[in-house]
Amino acid sequence: DYAGAEQWLRHALTLVPAPLSEAWEATVVNLAHSLRKQHQFVEAIQWYERALALNPCGASTHAAVAYTYHLQGMLENAISNYHKALGLKPDDSFTHEMLHVALQEQCTVFSSF
Is the pTM of this model over 0.90? Predict the structure, then answer.
């Protein structure tokens, strides 16, 4: 139940004194995941960006940002973020595969012009 998870994660974050520390990055990322699963892409990106502010080297968070852009058809943003993720974790097979898919989709878009 992603809506329930969203509610509990938001509640947990209200109990934390500001500013959030890096220790709360996983909670912020999980909130973003729950939003993405509910197709609330814009807000999910905002929460992923907050997580990256806490841990800029979070390769999986960069990949999640990329995937969220990809789901919206925002291929340039997706590709850029897939590259950032791979720069931090070059052996991530999911990110490699999704970058390949995004590049193929972008080629299809460009070839239709």
Answer: yes
Closest CA to 47 of 30, 60, 59: 30
How far, in Å, CA of 19 to CA of 6, rounded? 20
Distances (CA, A) of 81 to 63, 92, 98: 6, 13, 11
Asked if 66 contacts 82 with a C-beta cutoff of 8 angstroms, the reply is yes
> How many residues in total does the chain contain?
113
d(CA 90, CA 50): 23
Q: pLDDT tens, 65-105?
A: 999 999 999 999 999 999 999 999 999 999 999 999 999 99
> Helix H segments across 2-111?
2-14, 25-37, 41-54, 59-71, 75-88, 93-111
Euclidean distance between the first and the last CA atom of the chain, given in angstroms as a whole number: 42
Report the 10 Å Cβ neighbour count for 97: 11
CA dist 7 and 92 (Å) reads: 30
